[in-house]
Structure formats: C-alpha cells, structure tokens
Amino acid sequence: MTFFEQATWDGRTYLSGWRPTGATATVVSPSTGEPLAEYAVTTPEQVDLAVTEAVVAQRAWAARPATERAAVLRRAAQLIDGQAGVLAGWLQTEAGSAAGKAAFEAGLVSAEFWAAADTAMMPNGQLLRTGRPRLSFSRRLPVGVIGVISPFNFPAILSARSIAPALALGNAVLHKPDPRTTVTGGLFFAAVLEEAGLPAGLFNLVPGGADVGAALVEHPRVPVISFTGSTAAGRAIGKRAGELLKRAHLELGGNNVLLVLPDADVAAASSAGAWGSFLHQGQICMTTGRHLVHTDLYDEYVAQLTRRAAALHAGDPADGAPLGPLIDATQLSKVDAIVQESVRQGARIETGGTFEGLFYAPTVLSAVTPDQPAFTDEIFGPVAPVTRYDTVDEAIELINSSEYGLSVGVLSGDAYKAFELADRISTGILHINDQTVDDEAQAPFGGVGLSGTGARFGGHEANIEAFTETQWVTVQGEIATYPF
Ligand code: NAD
For residues 355, 349, 320 and 82, what is the CA-based torsion angle, rounded to 10 degrees? Predict the structure, then answer.
C-alpha cells in the first residue's frame, strides 16, 4: 500500500485533511472517455474557510526554522521520486501524455521540490551600508497565503513550480488545478505533502472551475496569485488583481518561432522542428508554433519535416503511441478550425489535417503567410506551420511582430552568428541550436508581452521575487535623538 491510494482521495479533497465537500466531479481519460476518478469540488464559501485556516497555519510555519521547512520539502521530493512511475502512469491516462513526456514531467516535478528545499536555505537579504551608527539590512519575508491556479497540459510541473517554492519560503498555499487534470495537478500533491509531514492548513486543495479560481483572486487574505494558463484568463485575472492592488504572476500563452538560418543542417533542423511542434500534441506553451525557414532550404525542410510527421501517429499512450489525444473536444475543434481557415486562405496541408476521436494527426502546413491564423494564433495542437523568408531582417521582423514573447529557437551552422541576433529578438527564452520547448527547475522561466507578466519561475532569485516581500530594517542600541 502506497500513500497515493485512490481509496483515500476518491470523492474527497484535501482541506486540512481529506474531506468530501458536498459535490463531486469526474476526471475522464481523453484517450478512452472512461471515468478515472471522482474528486470533491469546492465552493467559494469553502475557499473562504480554507483561507482562514491557512492564515493561522502560515504564521506558525513562517516562525519555524528554515531547516524544518527544507526537511519537509526534501521528504516530499523523496516521496515523489519513489512514486515517479505512478505519477507518470496517471499523466498518461489523465492528461493523455505519451510515455516519454510523462516520465520527463514526473522527473521535473521531483527536481522542483529538491530545488525548493535548497531555496529554503539560501541567504535571505542584504546587509546595507548606512550613514548612521546602526545596523541596516533588507530581508525577504513570506507574503502569507499564495493562490496557485494551474492548467491541464503539464499539470504536475506547472503546479509544483509554484507550490514547492511558496511553501519553502514560509507561505501557505491554496491550490486550484484544472478540472480536467485534478489528480495529477492537485490530489497527488496533497497526498505527497501530507505524507511528508507538512502541518495541516498549509496546503489546501480547492478543485473546481474558473469560479473557484476567481474566488481565490477576490479573497482579501490572498495577496499573491501565481497563475499559469491562457492569455484570456490571465488578462481577466490581471485586471481584477490590479483593481485589488494584489500581485499576480501570470504565465500565459505563446506563439513560438523556430528560426532556421540559411546555413543550418536541414536533417537536424527538421528533427528539432518536429520535436518542437509535436511533443505532447503541441499542447505546450513553448510549442514551436511557427517555423521560419530561409528560402534556400524551404522545400527540403518542408519535405523532411513532412516525412517525420507522417512517421508519427496519435493514439492511446497506454499502447505506446508517440502522440496522445488532445485534452477535449473544444480544444480539438479550435485546432481544426485554425487549420481549415488557414487552408482556405492559401496554406497547404502536406500531411495530417485529419482526426479520429480526440486524436489529431500530426500536421504540416506549408505556404503559411503572416496573415493566416496558423501564423498569428496559438494553435495548441500538433500542427507545424512553415513560413518562407528571404532575409534575416525580414525574419526578425516577423518574430517580433507577434504580441507573444515566450520562447524562440535559432538554428544555424554558426552558433556565434546566431547568438548575434539575440539582442534583436523580443522573447523571455532563447535557445541557440535547439527548438523552443525546454524547462529546468533552476532556470528562470517566463515570457514577455502577451506571454506573461510578473516574476519568473525557477531558480532562487525568481522564487524569492515571486513569493516573498522585502522589508527594510534598522537597529540601534539607544533610542535615536532629535532636535525637537
Ligand atoms: P485556461 O486559462 O482556460 O485555464 C487555466 C486554469 O485557469 C484552469 O485551472 C482554469 O480553471 C482556470 N481559470 C480559467 N479562467 C479563470 C478565471 N477567469 N479566473 C480564475 N481562474 C480561471 O487555460 P487552458 O486553455 O486550459 O490552458 C492552455 C493555455 O495555458 C495555453 O494558452 C498555454 O499556452 C498556457 N500555458 C502557459 C504556460 C506558461 O508557463 N507560460 C504553461 C502552460 C500553459
């Protein structure tokens, strides 16, 4: 018997212990349509109660030695390592992840917890120079209760990267996962943290839809929201957070470019391009959504990318398929509408463009021009739109014309020449000689423009920025004297 037993959490959620809430919802497998688990849905009133408990628990947690917080995070990381196979299995069935993506995600979740344990022990301020005989320093204090809201596509990582550092730095967390991935995005973490010995009240899971997320944003005792999801929802949250004068870290959509320079090796470039566009069926914020290819290489690149796409297929990850299903029918019709409209406007389907159930065939679109939706919109499906350019200046202009700015890859036979372009590209993440999808627990992750605003995720500096407040402190031995 492991700690992550369905019998413990079926029909319940974790609110200072496993409880029913009076209403339940079901997660279903996007591959088979079968129900996988029931979870308890929270109401905005229950969110309020959980915040009240979290406020009390957080004060005690922040007063504990950092070594104690680090120890809980380390125990959690060990438990995740021990359950990596179980988590990966759930990611396959619940999120439609192929085996490789599921294993990568489980590994990165563990890395987030190990890194957070280190964060708990890092220096916590600066000794300042002062013109007066006193001690002057700045220090970082926990903000209190953090509201975390996460999406369906990498449900475990995109929850872990906020939950773990927020707790390590002395905060309490109220977490709302996506309703379609409540097991891997939420229940798993409640089970891990309970087993790791996290005191009650510090991690509360509030499953539900946008209304529950909105209740977190509205709550006066939740001063920081850490949100990952669509630009539309992020905009609504940012607007409301602005009105309430609370901080919102918003990690949003992307429309990422793979720029293939004229001296790139086409075989290697098309392999990188296929990975960037098709990994997890293109449902990644960093997915390569636009391939900009120099005219000299264009035909050969399209041919090789098409050959690679045609060799893939989408199917049930449990049967070993390299690509899984899209998460639901709404997402699938959005993807197909973008493909069909782009074709109507002159794009050509080289392979794919068809679907069966939620399985969308890996698709290559050629003759994509900057005015077509396949170029301008985030597709979030297994579609590789390829656009021709003549000069590097024109390509840079095309990259920067997007309102998004998350990740860009530049492929070239000359890495230094490619790097010279870096200063001219507006993006939060830039990879020279790699595709656009990558993440490491210790690297600052985030975008500019419509891709996000707020602190970065990953690394001590970013975590401190995101999940603490600064306090300036001076200390002197005697009460200061004044002329009146
Ligand atoms: P979504 O915005 O619809 O949902 C994300 C989460 O927000 C869910 O938990 C949802 O219930 C909640 N939510 C939705 N509306 C809300 C509101 N008004 N108030 C509070 N909570 C609300 O996202 P999606 O479309 O399901 O996810 C895919 C999107 O997420 C893509 O655009 C993708 O690029 C983006 N994403 C970004 C990153 C990143 O780090 N930049 C990572 C992964 C996904």
Answer: -100
